[in-house]
Design goal:
The protein is mostly helical and 146 residues long. The chain has one domain: Alpha Horseshoe (Serine Threonine Protein Phosphatase 5, Tetratricopeptide repeat), CATH 1.25.40. 82% of the residues lie in helices and 0% in strands. Helix 2 runs antiparallel to helix 3 and helix 3 runs parallel beside helix 5. Keywords: Repeat, Signal, TPR repeat. One of its GO terms (cellular component) is cell outer membrane. InterPro entries: TPR-like_helical_dom_sf, TPR_rpt, Ycf3.
């Protein structure tokens, strides 16, 4: 009986100790993530300005910094894919389109832009069909490009 009480005491004690440590770690992590999100938004806005001024290489760099600050930033992946195309930086362009959609599956603009890109690089065949599927999905999601 005495052993059972001691065992319960230790289990109870360590359960609360671990819970407190976990809480403080999550609290610290959340604060860090919010700082990274603010930094990512700052880089993202600079990227939008650079892209608007047709400085695509600079915009690419800003969108990359935004993604490095917040790897879950779907919009930054999409915009980086768009400026990759305009700057003729084709390496990993598919990955950016796909990551934007993976992070935000209901992101109609990402489907639309990926479909447009497929249409621009394909004459016909499989990519043409995939283009239509992406653009169709964008419409299903309610995305209106204009």
């Amino acid at each position: 009986m005495k052993r059972t009480i001691i065992l319960l005491f230790f289990l109870f004690h360590f359960s609360f100790t671990n819970a407190n440590e976990k809480y403080s770690y999550n609290k610290y992590t959340s604060a860090t993530l919010s700082l990274d999100t603010a930094k990512a938004n700052k880089f993202y806005k600079k990227g939008l300005i650079s892209a608007k001024n047709e400085n695509y290489k600079e915009a690419f760099d800003y969108f990359t910094k935004a993604i490095n600050s917040n790897p879950n930033f779907a919009e930054a992946y999409l915009k980086r894919a768009i400026v990759r195309y305009k700057a003729k930086i084709y390496e990993n362009i598919w990955g950016d389109y796909d990551m934007a959609i993976k992070l935000k599956p209901d992101y109609g603009e990402a489907y639309y832009e990926r479909g447009r890109f497929k249409g621009q690089i394909s004459g016909s065949g499989l990519l043409k069909r995939a283009e239509n599927e992406d653009i169709k999905k964008a419409k299903e999601l309610g995305y209106k490009p204009f």
